[in-house]
Amino acid sequence: MRENRALVISSPGHIALERRPIPEPGRDEALIEVQYVALCGSDSKLFAGAYTNPHRYPVVLGHEWVGRAVSVGEGAGDLKPGDFVVGDCSVYCGECAMCAVNRNHCEAIEKRGITIDGGCADYIAVNRRHLYRCPPAEDCKPFVLTEPTSVGANGIGRVPREALGRASRALVFGAGGIGLLTLLTLQEFPFDEIVMTDPAREKLELALGFGFPNVRACDDAAGLDPASFGLVVEAAGSAASLKLCSRLAAPAAHVVLLGHQKPCELDFGEIMGKSLTIHASNGSTGGFERALAIVQKRKGIIERLITATVPLDEAADYISRRRHAEGNIKVVIDLRSGR
Description:
This protein has 339 residues and is α/β, with parallel strands linked by helices. The protein has helices at 41-48, 146-156, 161-166, 177-186, 201-208, 239-248, 268-273, 288-297, 299-305, 312-320, and strands at residues 5-11, 14-19, 29-38, 59-60, 64-72, 84-87, 90-91, 110-111, 123-127, 131-133, 169-173, 193-197, 215-218, 229-234, 249-257, 277-280, 306-311, 330-334. The protein has 2 domains: 5-151 and 284-334, Alpha-Beta Complex (Quinone Oxidoreductase, Chain A, domain 1), CATH 3.90.180; 159-280, 3-Layer(aba) Sandwich (Rossmann fold). The strands form 4 sheets. Strands 3, 5, 6, 9, 10, 17 and 18 form a 7-stranded mixed sheet that branches. It has a 6-stranded parallel sheet with strand order 13-12-11-14-15-16, sandwiched between helices. The chain has a 3-stranded antiparallel sheet with strand order 2-1-4, covered by helices on one side. The longest helix has 11 residues, at 146-156.
């Protein structure tokens, strides 16, 4: 008989596997057998009690996941049992005024794995509206990183293509998971040079190891030529790097903010003087289709970013001991194990 194991953060510092009923999908939903879940920095903050945006406990963690449709409701469109799918982190209504502008700001927004139960369970029921079918593939594992890839794809997608086409140089602050995955999105555009900057040299070596001839690494952004980048991406969540964005951006450049969430003083005289355009992108919703194509195209690189895989039965201990933070880029939980 099938069971439904779920990895639950009950309160800060407390995480354990629980047995839950297998959900009954509604008319517009599909029952998903989850295959893999990737850990994110927000999962670590939720576990530590350091997450500052709206959230709740207890909660099944996991907003980066890939699964297989087991059964499909009558209103779930063209999905078929056996299809591999990924899902939105943002659970949006699709009907309010904000959904017509930016679904990450739906008036009734919920966040899977943060304000409502997430994907780290053997079986979840998800509305068809929030599902995306994966391209055909023998192994669905790389698609577990579709959601974080979509963060960069959505943010870069807000920059006009004309601006991306004329910018010869791009700069990415942060060579963590989001920064490295954003590099894959930037490779879809004709940049002569993309500079990755991060104080951790081993992360930069990973970026250089992707083999892109236009990528250069720098461990001290303060030494870069000012006013020389037509596109700047802040993916580090660092006040120091955010302050450098306007200094390093060229006149009429575009700056994409993916990582910073805390208060920070900026030099608006420089921002105004250079006529900079700042795109603050809050979430991945809106970039999934582009992200799926990028993951399919760059599967070999995606697999290298998955630096550890943990069976579901061992995941609670692994997270409690903070082993996921031991130099890993992306840690993936394997839910297929133990079934």
